[in-house]
Amino acid sequence: MTRLVSAGHGGIDLEGRLDGIPESKSTIELNPYILTECDGRYYLGKIAFAGKDKEVDGKARLVLDESKKDFSEFHAFDDKSSLDDYLTQTGIGEGDVTRVTTEVALGQGALNAAFGMAVFGRSVSKEVIDIYLATIFESKAVKKKLPKELRSNGRYKGAGDGQIITNMNIKGFSHRLTLRAPAEEYDDFGNRNGVLEKLTKKDGILIDSVKDKGYAARLYRTLKATKPHVYISATDSMLKSLGADRVKKLLGECEVYIAQVKEMESLLNYKGEITRNNPAELMDAMLKIKSMMKNEGKNARVYVTDNERGSYVLDSKDNLYYHPIIKGIPVVNTNGCGDGFAAVATYLQLLRTTTRQDYSSSDILFHASIAGQIKAGLPTACGEDMATLQKIDDFYNAYPQSRSVTKLTPKYKKVRRVGGR
């Protein structure tokens, strides 16, 4: 059985709405403690001030710049009685607490991608590729929601039911508050039973949101030794955490690159923006990325998404294809759309290699693009409602304009249409 591993950050975000909280155009006032609940667990954190944040009349005034605000202390409780006992012992009263009703639990990078791989892969084949998640996100609540493919046979690399979230930080904007758990990467190196050490040339690994420099260095050495098929989802947060040189070093082991246009611009250190309606300029940037990849880009593929403008792939023969975003479909939450795209693209890429089935780059782009659009209609970043073959077929039938992938030339003209199926 071939393995496909999603490696990187896999924490969770608890997102909720703040009701009855005074808000100006630039700040939001909260009591010093934040309290939220998710699946029977209670989380209490005390706000730590940073930057332009201030305390006014006993309330925390947070600047709404979407930056993260750390907690100076953080506590998790198994049930309400444990929470109440703590509040009584510490003298924390109702006037000290801002309650947040958690509406959705969002995944981070590697978790979202692994979930997407498992759900999509189940609809394609149960006997060809095993999905693994090589990360730690310390949440019993989230573990219970994982696909069985990630919970069985030790494929879920979690920290155990006794450990929940050890800390969180805050992101606030427009009456919404996100409690983000700092992701802890699963250190599989040196573990004889670890999946990363067991990778072979027939296996695949998606590097998604790796943010620790030491982890990236060890991962690079392991990939050099085991030589699996390597794919990378090169996010801005990964680039900021590791630096361009480390990302490019990992890219040198990769056969597939997946990123947003702006993330590609950052990696290439573009001073301006790639002209979106200029395929020649876009193709030039994608060729530069390709030249940094394994074997100087021979047999490499570069996938680029551009939000509502659509997505592209530069195949191994330097053909550039485009698939549109369908206008007018319901958009609920775009968080995780890129991970949904990456999950399907990497799964089909490895399936193509493993089974020798003739999935062209345009076929893979078609399926991955629609998977991302299906994700946009879901409230959470990962879940059992993610893209399957049947859901992609249903989307294909509901929106005829999604049925083709367009081949572009550097002279800005559409030459011919290539069936997306």
Summarize the structure.
By secondary structure, the chain is of the alpha/beta class.
Give the secondary structure arrangement, pairings included.
Elements: E1 2-8, E2 12-17, E3 27-30, E4 33-38, E5 41-47, E6 54-56, E7 59-63, E8 69-77, H1 80-90, E9 97-107, H2 109-124, E10 129-134, H3 140-145, H4 148-151, E11 169-173, E12 176-180, E13 204-208, H5 213-226, E14 229-233, H6 236-242, H7 244-251, E15 256-260, H8 261-268, H9 279-291, E16 301-305, E17 311-314, E18 320-323, H10 337-355, H11 361-376, H12 389-398, E19 404-408, E20 414-419
- How are the strands ordered across the major sheet? 10-1-13-14-15-16-17-18-19-20
Biggest sheet statistics: 10 strands, mixed
- Strand fraction: 25-35%
The CATH homologous superfamily name of the largest domain equals Ribokinase
State the helical fraction: 25-40%
Total beta-strand segments: 20
The shape is globular
Radius of gyration: 22 Å
Number of helices: 12
State the low-pLDDT regions, or none: 151-167, 183-192, 412-421
